[in-house]
Write a structure and sequence with these properties.
Layout: H1 18-45, E1 48-49, E2 54-55, H2 60-66, H3 71-100, H4 104-113, H5 121-132, H6 137-142
Antiparallel strand pairs: 1-2
Length: about 160
């Protein structure tokens, strides 16, 4: 029985499923904190920090930074120590691998040291600083009975002017 109304086939409505939205949500979840961090760094760098009275953009913070007297020395020291540490670590690793690779001792050491790779480098650096600082854990363990120190020595371990 024919009708006046003709039925035309329609496409099913596209529904946004969780599987389809997953990659977008993952990108937003990962990029959101990074973008917030960039905004929180770049806005004050260009003078916009309303909490401290900076209500307009300017290059005054960069002018103040570049007018600091020790900036060039500090940058050169940072670059030099970073490159020197990288070179020393690379040469020491190459020498170690050339001497020990393929030996039983190397395999044992590899298994012992593998958990250290799971520790973030910054966390390890802070831990080492707390360990070897003049008022660090080693000094506290040995003082005053083994060292005779009543207060920690005035040794510059962190923020050393020579970059050591």
């Amino acid at each position: 029985m024919p009708t006046d109304r003709q039925v035309t086939p329609t496409r099913p409505a596209r529904r946004l499923t969780l599987a389809a939205a997953g990659p977008v949500l993952a990108i937003l979840l990962l990029a959101g904190p990074v973008l917030a961090g960039l905004a929180g760094t770049l806005l004050p760098a260009f003078g916009y920090l309303p909490a401290l009275g900076g209500n307009r953009f300017s290059v005054a913070p960069f002018t103040a930074l570049l007018s600091e007297p020790g900036l060039a020395t500090s940058c050169a020291l940072s670059l030099l120590t970073g490159l020197a540490a990288t070179l020393i670590a690379t040469l020491a690793t190459a020498a170690f691998l050339a001497a020990w690779s393929g030996t039983r001792a190397f395999e044992v050491l590899r298994h012992i040291l593998s958990p250290l790779l799971a520790i973030p480098h910054a966390a390890a650096a802070f831990g080492l600083a707390f360990l070897i600082a003049p008022s660090g854990w080693i000094s506290r363990l040995l003082s005053p009975w083994a060292t005779g120190w009543q207060s920690p020595p005035d040794a510059v371990i962190i923020n050393d002017p020579a970059g050591l």
